[in-house]
From TrEMBL:
Subcellular location: Cell projection, Cilium, Flagellum; Cytoplasm, Cytoskeleton, Cilium basal body; Cytoplasm, Cytoskeleton, Microtubule organizing center, Centrosome, Centriole
Protein name (record): Intraflagellar transport protein 88 homolog
Annotated Gene3D superfamilies: Tetratricopeptide repeat domain
Basic and acidic residues composition bias: residue spans: 717-726, 792-803
Amino acid sequence: MENVHLAPETDEDDLYSGFNDYNPAYDTEELENDTGFQQAVRTSHGRRPPVTAKIPSTAVSRPIATGYGSKTSLASSMGRPMTGTIQDGVARPMTAVRAAGFSKAALRGSAFDPLGQSRGPAPPLEAKNEDSPEEKIRQLEKKVNELVEESCIANSCGDLKLALEKAKDAGRKERVLVRQREQVTTPENINLDLTYSVLFNLASQYSANEMYAEALNTYQVIVKNKMFSNAGRLKVNMGNIYLKQRNYSKAIKFYRMALDQIPSVHKEMRIKIMQNIGITFIKTGQYSDAINSFEHIMSMAPNLKAGFNLILSCFAIGDREKMKKAFQKLIAVPLEIDEDDKYISPSDDPHTNLLVEAIKNDHLRQMERERKAMAEKYIMTAAKLIAPVIESSFAVGYNWCVEVVKASQYVELANDLEINKAITYLRQKDFNQAVDTLKMFEKKDSRVKSAAATNLSFLYYLENEFAQASSYADLAVNSDRYNPSALTNKGNTVFANGDYEKAAEFYKEALRNDSSCTEALYNIGLTYKKLNRLDEALDSFLKLHAILRNSAQVLCQIANVYELMEDPNQAIEWLMQLISVVPTDSQALSKLGELYDSEGDKSQAFQYYYESYRYFPSNIEVIEWLGAYYIDTQFCEKAIQYFERASLIHWLLVHFPLSLLTGNYQKALDTYKEIHRKFPENVECLRFLVRLCTDIGLKEVQEYATKLKRLEKMKEMREQRIKSGRDSGGGSRSKREGSAGSDSGQSNSASSKSERLSAKLRALPGTDEPYESSSNKEIDASYVDPLGPQIERPKTAAKKRIDEDDFADEELGDDLLPE
């Protein structure tokens, strides 16, 4: 019975009991103490004897199984114990392979517990001691890192002041952290990376807040600390600061020190530092050294900015051959962008179409467009800069540039250069050559044809040849229906013919194609005024005012619309904004005086009429109003002076231009002598006398020249006294000039006779200009009324095109390294 083991009294319904019982025979840790195992290892005890041919009978009795499922072992024919039997108190292990974790309950004494629940809950974690020095250091280090991150985030959001405060706070806490760490551990365990990041961020924030001295001191602390690796490259940032301070010699010194400390494997950074050195040389005027720097860059790693700056440097020294070579190097710079064919779907495959649509306007595509636009701008600007100087004439120079561009990857820019050539002809007032150049594009592709036709329409419109202007406007619209400039010019030609409704339709279509087309928006406001749709006109001008905040024309039109709507208060308010933009506009001042006069405010009306008279003393209407005002206020002597001036101006407008334009210099000389006799202190009259006497060869020129010099000196001294009196005196200008008119009349009695005769007299040649007897200048004393019909001529969109194409030829891009 010693081999019979009773099963434990467990619940018969527990189907999974005993599967995880442990057989002590598998306890490998106790093999050293297992006598049976040790004996089997040392001797042949327990080995299976060899099998012989004679197999004895195995008819032995089987053990009787008990009711609990246990069995007695059966002896084999060779006397070997059966597998799984217990012999001498030790259970022999099974020879078959069993599933992991499975064993019979008869051989084990523990229940099935795969989750180890019988062992009870895990012991609680050891409580963290927050008062320990190591924990305090860890928390403080975490706080410093958070402050550095917050400083960087504030800088990226544009809050530079908050970024600097966070950086300073991080620096203070980092110093406390270093002291605490020195007390607890050895100095070798100090976190140098954290110290470096805190100091670097603090220096960057100082530089962003333009506190350059503090930034340089902080950078010096980093650079001089030998424990910081690669700190020498921060001398680039120090050079950037010296460049901002215009200390160019030190900037070059630090750039070169940084260049020496950066290994040659960092090729891109070395190229950028070389570019900064070249730009600094340009700012110091050392163009030869700048050329050497940029040529080195173009030979090692050519880029657009270096090529453009190389052209500028060569232009500064006037070397034609170097300019040509530099332009060819700029043209040869690879763009490194994909072709446009990549973004065109080659088939009707829906998956391919979806992919093309996804990448057609992604960030990479936008970056490619920006890079291409920048390259085209540099090339166009460089061509416009060097074309007039590389050859004997600008036309030959432009032709050379066009040929070079046609042989490069920027073939489409050749047509734009031709258009710029025509615009250069316009600036030189050679309209025939400009027209001939633009007409060459009539058989080109639609985009270039539309641009050329737009400019031709603009030229013919300015010459009042509306039929030709309309013809070329139609050509431009047909070539490119979505060209807002072409639609605006077409609307202008229709406007000139009086068809305002149709003109408004063209302006609306231009705005639908480009909502930022200010010319179309301005012209549609003028069209609505002509159609007496004042509310819509006002809405258009207010929209334009939101785009062009300080446009005098827009402010003037808004005031005029309010005046037409019989709202003088609003008109006065907008005119006040107008004179804040153009305080010397005499017509706006006289309009303000007129509105105040209509409102019954004579004092304010006098103030603005008088200001208008000061800036433009030849306006007869203003002079007559001032004379009538002095009569009403019982100052007849002052009124007589103004009426005499008005009479003289009227006489001069009738007689003097006729004698001058017909070449009757003797009569003009007599007229000037008469004016000088009546107004001996008139400086402009003396200037004309000196010029006429010099041209005719009279001996009186010396006398008039001496009088002119004396009067100019007296005028200068008088202006200085007036200026010093204004600086020391108190009270408002309006009070001084509007108090019954007596004070202003007395203070100006000495200088009233020396006022200018007319606006167009000033337009005649001065003393330092040659007098042209055959001058075809039109002499007209009438002033262009900004509220009158002259300003209502529609703007031409081609004018804007010409201005936009005029780049800043000598603008340098300082490619400073990011800090």
